[in-house]
Write a structure and sequence with these properties.
The chain is α+β, with helices and mostly antiparallel strands. It is built from eleven helices and twelve strands. The chain has two domains: 136 residues, PAS domain (Beta-Lactamase, 2-Layer Sandwich); 158 residues, 2-Layer Sandwich (Alpha-Beta Plaits). A five-stranded antiparallel beta sheet has the order 2-1-5-4-3. The protein has a five-stranded mixed beta sheet with strand order 7-8-6-11-12, sandwiched between helices.
Length: 313
């Protein structure tokens, strides 16, 4: 009677635990199928037990699962599969909100040898729902990505800040040093920006900065990097671009900024820009020199009357 009660309690525990239990023999036939597996698969135990697991679930990774089970039979040791390696074994729905970004229950699986007299008789596969772990990790990754985005973006214009721009320039400069090719940089600023701030106020000045950044961002390539250097000064990194082509881009930037007045807070502000450019060339020791040369040509454009583009001769 005691043994019968213990067996009954054991069966009850197996049926009610909060993870899946599947027992397979060496031929991949199902010997046990608990309530968790029944509830999430829609297959009752009597429909599955005694049959090949692949008959009921043909979508299972047959080769991978067969090898996994066979290795446990041969070695007699535990095996494990994490959701990070294989997101799921059984394609079950999860009980998380549909907005969590995970379509299928994420699962950790343990493969445990069931032995008798030192011989592996069957393998017990446990299936744990770890969807919450994946959701938490996803949310954490999104928070980190947002924080990194904030750290790399200028708070007024939304484009890259100086720190991020210089990091991108450094990487491109190292690539250019190793592989050669072309690399150019443009620096530009808004002509008489202080007068705009003094006349219309900083709210209008900030609007001019935002519109300028947006116009230029829409006029350049995806692979180019636009950044705000500070104040009203901007920088544009042009990978795989010669000095002659950079001059064409410089004129496009200048006309993009100045062709249409900026409307902000009920006023129309005529905006022009001066642009300076430089290109990498043999013997250039560091990317900082490229910035300094572009800066020198920018001030040359200022001295020549503003609203023009000048590149290093």
């Amino acid at each position: 009677m005691k043994e019968a009660m213990e067996r009954s309690l054991s069966d009850l525990v197996i049926a009610r635990v909060g993870f899946g239990i599947v027992v397979l023999d060496r031929a991949m036939n199902v010997l046990m199928w608990n309530r968790f597996m029944q509830d999430h698969s829609g297959h009752a135990a009597e429909q599955v037990v005694g049959k090949s697991i692949f008959a009921s679930f043909p979508e299972l990774p047959r080769v991978w699962l067969t090898r996994k089970i066979e290795s446990v039979f041969r070695l007699g040791s535990f095996a494990f599969s994490s959701w990070e390696q294989r997101p799921y074994l059984f394609k079950f729905d999860h009980d998380r909100p549909i907005t969590c970004g995970v379509d299928v229950m994420q699962q950790d699986c343990t493969f445990m040898p069931l032995t008798r007299g030192g011989e592996v008789m069957a393998v017990c596969v446990t299936v744990s729902d770890v969807t919450h772990v994946r959701v938490m990790q996803r949310e954490s990754e999104e928070v980190v990505a947002r924080l990194e985005g904030y750290a790399n973006r200028d708070c007024i214009t939304g484009i890259a800040n100086r720190r991020f721009f210089e990091a991108r320039l450094r990487d491109e400069f190292l690539r250019w040093q190793r592989y050669g090719g072309e690399l150019s940089v443009l620096l530009f600023d808004i002509d008489r920006f202080k007068d705009i701030n003094d006349r219309y106020g900083h709210a209008v000045g900030d609007a001019v900065l935002r519109v300028t950044a947006q116009r230029v961002a829409n006029a350049v390539r995806v692979q180019d990097t636009l950044g705000r250097f500070g104040g009203d000064e901007f920088a544009l990194l042009l990978p795989c671009t010669s000095l002659a082509d950079a001059m064409i881009v410089a004129e496009r930037v200048r006309s993009t900024i100045g062709d249409v007045p900026v409307e902000a807070n009920g006023v129309r502000v005529r905006v022009t820009a001066s642009v300076g450019g430089a290109a990498a060339r043999p013997g250039l020791p560091a990317y900082e020199v490229l910035i300094n040369e572009a800066d020198a040509t920018l001030y040359s454009a200022k001295r020549k009357g503003r609203n023009r583009s000048v590149v290093l001769a």
